[in-house]
Amino acid sequence: MSENNGRRTPDSSGGAASDNYIKDTYELAYEEQLRKFTELDSPESTQPVPVASVTGRNYGEHPNLSNRSSDEFHHNRQQGSRGRQSQGNHTKHRAQTGGRSNTGKNKKKRRSSAQQGVHINRDEPLQFGMSSNRSKGGEAAVKKRSPVKRALLIVLIIILVLVLILQIIILRYVGKITYRESGTRNFTTAALRSDDILNILLIGSDTRDSSERGRTDSMILLSIDKNKKRTTMTSFMRDCYVTLPDYDLDGDGGFYGEGDKCKLNAAYVYGGPELLMDTIEYNFDVAVDKYVYIDFFSFIDIIDSVGGLELDITDEEAVGMQDPMREQNRYLGNEYGTDYLEVGGKGMKVNGNQALGYARLRYVGNADFERTERQRTVISKLIEKAKGSGVFTLDKFAVAVCEHIETNMSKWDIYKLIYRAPFILKYETKQLRIPDDDEYSYGTAWDGSSVLDVDYKSIIETINREIYE
Question: Per-residue pLDDT tens for 28-55?
């Protein structure tokens, strides 16, 4: 290996050069052309311009150019000088003849000369760029898709995927609900009804199975007004003295007599949810077409699904809760005294077992009046807790509710209701109790039991004003 002016060349043994600056054939060809152009622009120069002086870099010899001698470079230089001299003579001749010359022949000669000077190396790769004579059809073929259209397509695909996921989730909830065929209804002509309002009777019982037809201790009419974006929870007192429509309670062969009257919570025992809905429609003139049944003990799982509730509990209520919780612990298999509270407090965190004991508490305060209020409070707190929960907690809540309810609503009705649920949860919520403070008096039933004699006319006006107006 030998050095020449700071650059390395292949040694005599034929070994490969390690010079990183040695160019390939194409680059050297380009540098030779550049050298020729430089010679043409420098007529005074009689010596060939080294490639290194043009490019600013000194490169090693290349085998493909090693046979080129300096005589060839001088010959090219002389040919270029003669060409420029001939061109000058031609220009001088045109000036002397007034610019008249055989332009056609000159143009042909120039074109011929230009064509002869062009060397096309077919081994070179194609050059990048668009040809000036590209057809319009070719340009249209390479047009890119509009970014706006592409973004809209992506958004549409995302929406379709989300809708599909939503449908799967809703169908999952719908599949967990227990459906009951609607039995025979004998009275469905209540005057208070509207296409904009859906009335669903929430039936709660402390029995362990709806087939046992125990007394219903919770009867809340949930009215969903889609026009006014409002939900109203109306509690019906269990001791309301009512008439059972088209039902011979005393067995005398007649209907609507004194012997066919009883407490409202007994209607479910005699005729199931259908007779209970008939009784409310007949006595309070409000339409009830759908119901949802849930036993109180399932309510424990629903409350635990959202992590419990925060309730304001008095010391008297805390002690009174121990009585219903004693029965609940036996049912749940808990040890005696589990979840008992000794004192109350504001915003107390309670679990499902404790919240149910609070809702069933009857012998503290104004008996069943305050009990219905506690039940509405628990439901309201539960809805508020679900509204503020995350996606996974809300899913657990929905699953727990669907697994523990029975209804006469069709799967399509449930599907629509679940689909609307996120919007319904944002509605304004009202609470109502039937009868109100000035709409009842204490009385005695034909069998000697204590009942509430209610003012039906005043109650119907209240329902119409609070729900339908």
Answer: 777 777 777 676 655 554 455 454 444 4
Q: In angstroms, how far is CA 336 from the centroid of its own chain?
A: 46
Longest pairwise C-alpha distance within the chain: 145
Q: Is residue 165 part of a domain?
A: no
Q: Mean pLDDT, to the nearest integer, of 348-365?
A: 92
Average pLDDT over residues 399-428: 92
Backbone angles phi, psi at 186, to 5 degrees: -105, -15
Determine the Cα–Cα distance for residues 28 and 61; give it in Å rounded to an integer.
10
Do 8 and 1 contact (CB within 8 A), yes or no?
Answer: yes
Q: 72, 104, 139: which is the final residue of a domain?
A: 72
| Helix ranges, 68-135 (H) | 70-96, 103-117
Determine, yes or no, domain membership for 220.
Answer: yes
Q: What residue has token string 């194609």?
A: 126
Q: Is residue 401 part of a domain?
A: yes
How many domains does the chain divide into? 2
Q: pTM for the whole thing?
A: 0.67
Query: What is the domain extent for residue 409?
Result: 178-468
Which residue shows structure tokens 């043994």? 13
- pLDDT, tens digit, 9 for 90 and up, residues 148-185: 888 999 999 999 999 999 899 999 999 999 999 988 89
CA 68/CA 184 separation, integer angstroms: 113
